[in-house]
Records
---
Amino acid sequence: SSGINAEWPLRPGGSVLCTSVINPHNAKPEDIDGVSIFTDETVVGNIRNIWLAWAGATFIMFLPGIFILRPPTTDEVCKQADLLAGDSMESVELLPRPKIQGPNFSIKQLFSQPRFYVLYLIIMILSLVLLTSTELYKFIAIDTIKDDAFLNIVGAAGSIANAFGRITWGLILDKIGTRTTYTLAFMIQGPLTISLHYSKVLRWGYLANLCIVSFCAGIFTCIAPACIELFGSRDISLKYALTLSAESFGCVMFFLLQLGEPMFGELIFLVVMGVPSIIASLLALFCFRSPKEMSYEVMN
């Protein structure tokens, strides 16, 4: 007979996907040779379907790259070279010349920049809020909102809000820069993370509160453009990877802090998660200069 290891997050009261799709009947695992295994046919079948759907979606996403992207032709390369070499207004409009002003640090120079460590700390703090809103939204409100179906809706709405937040904060950052965008997002999400403790008494208030927190956490998508603005596009893939590694340390910090939640209580735990966002907002305000204030020469 087939089964699924219970290390999978399929236990009752799990995430929206697990509760609504994979394990809708909250089936419990069986102990087989000292290992917890889900043998419920519905769970096993749903897991198989999820993996097939995931594989199909991944394949579809790769199709544009297979059929649309191609190397440029010789004529296109020559045309691009002519546009770059020309002085006409047409060439300026179609293919602007690269700007020569702005930071362009190498990886070695990156580690000597205090702003890199500030951004790294901010991303760690962001992961705390992101994990709080995605992993603990049910546990925070389960005592007051005794409606598992509604809490599933809360989680789904938060995911949608986060998706819209990623788009919106990206547009905002392109318009006003890293400093103001990060300051605004973290200043909003910090107090609202703490207020989850109070808004849970009203189900719709809790839903709105979580959606706004999730929306602000969408600033996660602004890490790459922030790296370009603050440190330049040189070696941007490695710069982005180094900065994104802060998320992993933030996850470790989150789960360590979560161990103390039963001892200190929910409110103190949310304060510990929310106050660092306010600190991150102040760090962004005072440590990240806006594009107009930055006057670097290109570094080779």
Note: The two ends are 63 Å apart (CA to CA).
---
Amino acid sequence: MTSTQQKLDEVELLESIYPEFTEVDIEDRANCVELASNPCEYPVLRLHLNFPVVKLCVELPSGYPECEAAELRFEWTSLSTTQENELLQKLTEISTDSLGEGSLLMIVSAVTEYIESLSIGSPSCEDTVTAAVAVSLNRLWYYAHHIYSKEKRSNMMKWSRELDLTGFILPGKPGVICIEGSIANCREFNVRVRAMNWQLLKLQHDERELEGRLFTDFEEMIFDVHGRANNHQDLGQFRTFLEDKQIGEVFTILFGF
């Protein structure tokens, strides 16, 4: 795979996970697509990451990601100079330390986490940051062909504690995963869960700008189990569970009926 194709693949993954933040230069993308299969051409690819209190310009130079780090600069920010310098230093370190791997996902995750950690005295800035945190609350719904593996289930339980996620796993065939938390942490979970081996795993529903969480912890949901291998849960009971939470429409989104 050429370095140009690696750039395109990383940007497309970023767009699929963080569409609300990502804006790619149209001409740069078209040029990269045209030259993607040519190992002798190394076009630059620029994109903008638009956060509520920061607009960051990222340039992927010709040698990215093998031997050149992503170049970063703020186009606009409501942060103080000290905060700008602190954040830029953190992002530059991530970019430099990720040579050979690609750094876009880690950069976005670092910015969102920094925004959420801010405690700013200025009322106007505080309102902006509070709004950014509110907008960042996310709920993702996955449909899986089946969820049997104890290792997968254990990993997801561990990640939920690490990433402060609430929701549930519905093991069996079919399986369902629901997570809710900050956008950054939900996206990190998304990267990890997709890295595992699945017969079929689809992100069926992505809810954003939530007013609050539906769940207080992360747990496995067990309803009446049936089937020859005792691997099918009672979906009627699961539908009732969702209806009791006032989200009955999610059942149709997940299963199509």
Note: DSSP finds nine helices and eleven strands in the chain.
---
Amino acid sequence: MHFEEKSSASKGLPALSWPKGEHIGVKIQWFVEWPFSLLRWFTVPPCYHDGKWDSWRHWFVISSPMPMAMLLLLTARGTDGFTILVGKLPLYQLLLIIGLALSVLAYFVVPRRHPPHWSLQIVLGTLAFVMSICWLNLEANEVIANLEAFGLMFDIDTAILGLTVLAIGNSVGDWVADTAVARAGHPSMGVASCFGSPLLNDVLGLGIALTTKIIIDLDGKPYTFDINAPAYNKVKLSWIFLGISLMSSVVVFPLFKFSPPKAFGVVLIYFYIVFMVFSILDEVNVMNIKL
């Protein structure tokens, strides 16, 4: 395979190169995003997945171990992690030393002028995946913290913010991706993704979270709760509406060969609005729903 090294970052590093020839809005957006893009390149090691490799990617791989170690510590222990001592040495300093050693090793192992060996690509890809999960976890925590602060400032119950702002924001990415897939001529794939993504969140998100809580916080003891408590009314209400919408989709989509009429989409939108109204009314005690 012919390989041509890029001599500058402007040709090989997405989000770091100046958007030459673009309108002023794109340039302003680039200016705002550039520090975060640089931080991403420092903490998520690049691999050869896009068929591109150059000296800049080689340099970012070498410089990434120390920032990755700090991001892992921040994800695992938060800011308290920087106060943990290992003997008399702070943990973050020990991680920086280990990261420096890995950077030196990467300098001699990772090639500069040609793509790395496939085995090294697997290692880099795995590290990039793990660090992406760390970033998603930190961002999710910050979103929740901001929502709680927003609720305290304007005296809005955080449950209502979760049902509205957080729920919609969490689904926008899936909505855009699924719509793009469907419009690209793969309606069955788009529909499958609509159901597969929430299923992954429910199965892995709840499964891993509850299992971790049992192992760490409860010392392996069963986690018990009262399903009839008023706090779980909204959960039951959510599952009722979700079950009805899923059953309707199971019938309608195969019936219309995964190209349902627009009227069904309107019905689902109104169905969601009804769910939101019931949930908010129950939260503000206007309507006491007992399930």
Note: The longest helix spans residues 118-154.
